[in-house]
Amino acid sequence: MLRHVCGRESYRSLSGRLRYPPSLSYHFHSSAIRRSSPPPRYVRFSPPSNPNSNSGGGRRNGKSFLEDHTWPVKVGAGLAGMGVIYYVSCLEQVPETGRWRFIAVSPETEAEIGKMVLQETLAQYKGQILPQDHPVTMHVKRIVHNVLSASHLGTVKGYIEPHKQSLFGNDFGADDVWSASSSTNSPPSAIASANKEWAVVVVDDRKFANAAATPGTIIVFTGILPVCKDEQGLAAVLSHEISHVVARHTAERLSSQTIATALGLFLSIFGVSLGFSATLNTLLLELPNSRLQESEADLIGLRLMSKACYDPRASPAMFARLAQLESQASRGGFGAPEFLRTHPTSESRVRDLQAHLGEGYDIIAANPACAELQDQAQAFKETTRLRNAFDLGHNGHDHHRQHGEDEKEVWR
C-alpha cells in the first residue's frame, strides 16, 4: 500500500490525505505546503497621494498654477466671464428707437467732451467763424431754436426769438407755437433738456459741406448751405446732427472702443496679433455701428423736424442732392462699397427716409401747433406784403423782389 501511494500519487496529494492528531499539529510542519511570498516589484514613481488631502503648499498633483500649461485658458475664461457680466450691466436702449447698445460713458463725461470740442473748434477755425449777429448765423440759430424748443431739448445761446406782430399791432398768439408734449423717454439732462444751452458756430468754409453736433454745440460749415438749398433742407441737416446727440452716439462710440481694446487683448492671449484684431474690429464692429448710427439719426431727425413743423419730404430731398454732389466729386466713378463706408450711401438713405415719410406726416397731423404755425406763417407773409405796400418812397413789388434776392444770397 505504501508503495502504491509513493509510486502512483504525487507528494502533494499524499500530504493532503495525511491527517495528524491535534496534539501534533502545532509541532510538526511540512515544508511541502509552504508558499513563498511574491518577489518585490520595482516602482519607479511613488503612488499618488490622496486627492482630498491639501498637502504640498496649495499644489495639485505636485504642480503649481503657473506650471499647469492650461493656465492661459483658465485666465482667459475668467476674464471673458467678467467681461460678459460688465457688458450686460452696461446695456441700455436708445429711447427713440428701442435699439440695445453698450454705454460705459456717463452723460457728464459726454458733456465735458462737448465743451472740449467747442474750444477746439473756436481755436482751429479762428478767423473763419461768422459773428453771432451775422445774418447766416442768425438764420441757423433760428432753425436750431425751432427744432430744440419743439422737443424740449434746450435753448440757443444768445438767441432771442423775434416778437412777431401784425400790421395792426396784434400778437400772432400768446401761446408758444413750438410747444409740444415732452417725451417720456427724454435724454439725460446733461445731454439735452429744456434748460440746456446750445452754442451755434458757423464756419465760413464754402469748400467743406458738413455739419456736426456734440452735447451743447452745433457746428455748421457754409459749404453745406447750397446742398440744403433752403430752410427746410437746413432743418433736415440740423435735426440729423441733433439726433446724434439725443441718441448719445458719441458715448456709444467711445464705449465700443473699450470693447474693441478688450477683445484685442483677449485674442492676443491665443496668439492673434493686435493689427489683425484692429482690422476685424473696423470691419465687423466700427463701420457697421457707424452706418447703423447714421441711419438711426436719419430716422430720429425726421421725427424732430416734423415736431418742429418742417416738411419731412425735405430730408430725403436733401440727401438726393447730396448724392448728386458725391457723384460729381467721384467724377462718375464707382465709390467704395457700402461695407467699407462710415455712412450709408445717399441712395439707401433716401429710400429709408421715404419709407418713413408717413410717420413724419402723422406727427405733424397730431400736433395742433403745426397747423397753427402754417396759418401764422401765411398771415405773416401777408402782413409783410402790406407793410411794403404802405412804405413811402418804395415800390412794394420791387421791395419784395429785392427782399427775396437778399434771402437767396444767404444760400449762395
UniProtKB/TrEMBL annotation:
<dbReference type="Pfam" id="PF01435">
    <property type="entry name" value="Peptidase_M48"/>
</dbReference>
<comment type="similarity">
    <text>Belongs to the peptidase M48 family.</text>
</comment>
<dbReference type="InterPro" id="IPR051156">
    <property type="entry name" value="Mito/Outer_Membr_Metalloprot"/>
</dbReference>
<feature type="region of interest" description="Disordered">
    <location>
        <begin position="391"/>
        <end position="412"/>
    </location>
</feature>
<feature type="region of interest" description="Disordered">
    <location>
        <begin position="32"/>
        <end position="64"/>
    </location>
</feature>
<keyword id="KW-0378">Hydrolase</keyword>
<keyword id="KW-0482">Metalloprotease</keyword>
<protein>
    <submittedName>
        <fullName>Peptidase family M48-domain-containing protein</fullName>
    </submittedName>
</protein>
<dbReference type="InterPro" id="IPR001915">
    <property type="entry name" value="Peptidase_M48"/>
</dbReference>
<feature type="domain" description="Peptidase M48">
    <location>
        <begin position="194"/>
        <end position="355"/>
    </location>
</feature>
<feature type="compositionally biased region" description="Basic and acidic residues">
    <location>
        <begin position="403"/>
        <end position="412"/>
    </location>
</feature>
<keyword id="KW-0645">Protease</keyword>
<keyword id="KW-0479">Metal-binding</keyword>
<keyword id="KW-0862">Zinc</keyword>
